[in-house]
Amino acid sequence: MTERPQMTVAGVTLDAPDAQELAAFYRRLLGWNVIQDEADWVSLGPPAGPTALSFQTEKAYVRPVWPAGPGDPQMSVHLDIRVEDLDEACAHAEKAGATRAGYQPQEDVRVYLDPAGHPFCLFL
């Protein structure tokens, strides 16, 4: 058996019609710092961590539908964000520019959509 090479997931990248706009939303939501800032690529990171959340402009971006029905563009990823106070976090997300999803599958989780339509979950 061959030894596995060292690998670390450094982050997640979300496509968007405008990387700058989506990164600005997540900066408001999470309070993370800009790590890299280019016209069509922005990376954010938490003050004390190596993880990055990046955004790239995709001119042919198609907004996902959640929950997706037959023939709808489906999400390829969603973010799970742990919070201490669900009501407070929901109010903050809405103030930052998120939209509460019409379908909420769990009582202790709130699903929101970012400005590009990517779902994210707030949970205790």
From TrEMBL:
SUPFAM superfamilies: Glyoxalase/Bleomycin resistance protein/Dihydroxybiphenyl dioxygenase
Swiss-Prot/TrEMBL keywords: Dioxygenase, Oxidoreductase
A GO MF term: dioxygenase activity
InterPro entries per UniProt: Glyas_Bleomycin-R_OHBP_Dase, Glyoxalase_6, VOC_core
Domain VOC: 8-124
Name of the featured protein: Glyoxalase/bleomycin resistance protein/dioxygenase superfamily protein
Species, as recorded: Pseudosporangium ferrugineum
Lineage: Bacteria, Bacillati, Actinomycetota, Actinomycetes, Micromonosporales
